[in-house]
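Hi there,

I know you've been waiting on this one. I reran it after we fixed the sequence typo, so this is the corrected version. Both the input and the resulting structure follow.
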Amino acid sequence: MSLLQTYDSVIVLTGIVTSLPGESNPVIECLEKMKRFESEEITLDEIVEVFDKLVELCGGEDGNGNAAIATKNGGVELVCGVCKKIRSGDGSRVGLVSGLNALALLLHG
């Protein structure tokens, strides 16, 4: 995939800038936390916290751009993988609902 494509003398950007050098991106930080969840023991509260942060970032005014960043960086797969780790029991619905809300924003965005 090329970063620039030319179409009838109009240059169209096809890449997405996730952050400037030296700056962190909160969407990427959420995804990094989810990646760590794959190899660490985590609590339901930690899962819900990250899902809710992702929902906050991918909803609202800047949501579509953030959702695109998350999706291009494996967000859909990560959310599904973390949802698989949620065990049935007390409070598990809260985690699953939070995860499905995040997933819906990523798929819709």
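Quick highlight: Residues 23-108 form one domain.

Best,
R. S.
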